[in-house]
Write a structure and sequence with these properties.
It is a single chain. By secondary structure, the protein is mostly beta strands. It is 6% helix and 64% strand. It has a 16-stranded antiparallel barrel with strand order 1-2-3-4-5-6-7-8-9-10-11-12-13-14-15-16. A hairpin with a 5-residue loop joins strand 1 and strand 2. The longest helix has 19 residues.
Length: 335
């Protein structure tokens, strides 16, 4: 080998090797357990005691090179009842100004509940509805898919365009083909943030009864507005959302409001919702919830949370009322 040629090319080879090695890679794996013990008191049933929970296993990775990155996350759930499920499963790529995310994930929260260890609404399935601007937020099931584009023109302003589509089989007889879009914008200041978004979801629902199949086209749309204020260690969320539901036989409008505060280990919140169904007295539901977390023996990553939720609904189907009260003790341990 020509020694002079070798000495000339060696620095170039070393430079190329160093350039390749400048790619920054991160990998993480972790798990946590969440165990809930509940006492449930409903108006039309006896007091019930339930226990549920899951172990969540998270795998994350991120590689950066020349100002760009590729990032991924997978979350698996091992549930107490023996079921397994996928929580998050997504890949994201781009840079500090823009990125594209695909897979299974949740888009920006337009109705944050704060410390929502337990939030149980009365009147569910009886005409009282709560809308949290989350029709197209994500975590699509079955064969559903998701894409989201994020754009950050500055540190104070960010945009998100989320989409969802797919089909699902509900109870073996409702085949739904759905698609939705959800643009949103967030402005962040020194002590506050403001997020506004709009979403539209359309799907065809086929129902088979007595051998006869009927197809219904359903359109849902809505918007959400949330503001967050931070001062003296407290975080306050103020939420408002409105949903319009249209199908062949009905036209329903749901308007929901929420307010909550988190201060250290303590959280308190309230939600009030009105469903305009064209009746003389429209269904309403009001829910109040609270939670407080304590460390377990001052051990890192171990805690116990005591939480409660009380809710009442009025003017339900058949001109009835409903009450629902729930107490929860949650044990968390991250390992």
């Amino acid at each position: 080998m020509n020694n002079k040629y070798f000495m000339k090319t060696l620095p170039l080879a070393v430079s190329l090797a160093l350039g390749i090695s400048q790619a920054h890679a991160e990998f993480g794996i972790g798990a946590n357990i969440e165990l809930d013990t509940d006492i449930i008191d409903a108006k039309d049933s006896d007091t019930k005691f339930e226990q549920g929970g899951r172990i969540e296993v998270n795998v994350t990775g991120k590689t950066e090179l020349n100002g760009y990155f590729v990032e991924g996350k997978g979350s698996g759930l091992l549930k107490k009842n023996g079921d397994t499920a996928t929580d998050d499963m997504w890949v994201k790529f781009g840079n500090d100004t823009w990125d594209v995310q695909a897979g299974r994930f949740e888009a920006v929260n337009l109705f944050p509940l704060g410390k929502d260890t337990v939030v149980a609404h009365a009147g569910d399935g009886k005409g009282a509805r709560v809308y949290e601007a989350n029709l197209v937020r994500g975590r699509a099931g079955d064969n559903g898919g998701q894409f989201a584009l994020h754009v950050r023109p500055s540190s104070a302003l960010s945009f998100e365009l989320a989409s969802i589509w797919g089909d699902s089989d509900e109870n073996g007889n409702n085949e739904e083909v759905f698609s939705g879009l959800r643009p949103s914008v967030t402005f962040t200041g020194e002590m506050f943030s403001l997020t506004a978004g709009y979403e539209v979801l359309k799907y065809d629902q086929e129902t088979t009864t007595g051998g006869v199949t009927t197809k219904t086209e359903i359109d849902k749309s809505g918007f959400g507005l949330t503001g967050n204020i931070r001062f003296s260690g407290a975080s306050i969320n103020l939420n408002a959302a409105r949903e319009d539901i249209e199908d062949a036989g009905s036209d329903i409008t749901v308007t929901s409001f929420g307010a909550n505060v988190t201060y250290g280990a303590f959280g308190l919140g309230a939600v009030h919702s009105i469903s305009d169904v064209g009746a003389k007295d429209d269904p309403t539901v009001s829910t109040l919830y609270v939670a407080y977390t304590l460390p377990l023996f001052n051990i890192d990553n171990a805690s116990i949370t005591f939480a409660g939720s009380t809710s009442s609904a009025d003017n339900l189907a058949g001109d009835t009322d409903d009450d629902l009260h729930k107490i929860r003790t949650r044990i968390n341990y991250t390992f």
